[in-house]
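Standup notes, structure subgroup. Blocker cleared on the heme C input:
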Amino acid sequence: MGTSLNKNIFYFVYFSFWACLVSCSSNTFESNSTEKKHLDLYEPSDLANTMRDMALDMESLRFKVNSGGLTIIDIDKLISSHSTMSTDEPTDRKEIQPSFQLFSNIYIEQLEELKTIILKQGEIREQILLFNSALTTCVSCHREHCPGPISRIEKIKI
Ligand code: HEC
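Run returned:
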């Protein structure tokens, strides 16, 4: 009788030990997946991705604009890829001000104007002026939304 009680206690402790190990490892499993969810939160939004491309595009065209080598194809590419900014999902919709759509429209209109000037084979000086104006619109929108990239944007101006 005594030994079978001891045996029961032994099994109880033995199985509790394993039950604990299993639940602990399932805990680590859970914390792994929450960690992953946390990482997902840091994935850039569609808008942030578009903005990164916009910055790279403008930086890489800077020299071309300055030397008068800008083409209609360059501008068409900018217009089609940058205009998604008006519908891209931002990181935090609550932070988007009513002025966002206005700045976004002005920016695209300035690219359209730049295209018109190239079509008319306008002066390089005029092209530079519009390139810089478009960048000023980037800065104006950033003053109201996220000031972080402003100095980077200012550096692209010619
Ligand atoms: C209509 C407003 C608006 C205009 C115009 C605009 N931006 Fe932005 N930009 C934003 C907002 C809002 C964010 C934050 C996006 C987010 O976190 O989802 C942003 C984010 C960025 C970022 C940071 C992206 C990241 O890594 O998180 C860069 C760089 C940037 N913009 C560059 C530019 C450049 C260069 C231009 C012009 C060629 C420009 N922006 C024009 C509103 C604008």
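Discussed briefly. The mean pLDDT is 85.
Next: hand off to the docking folks.
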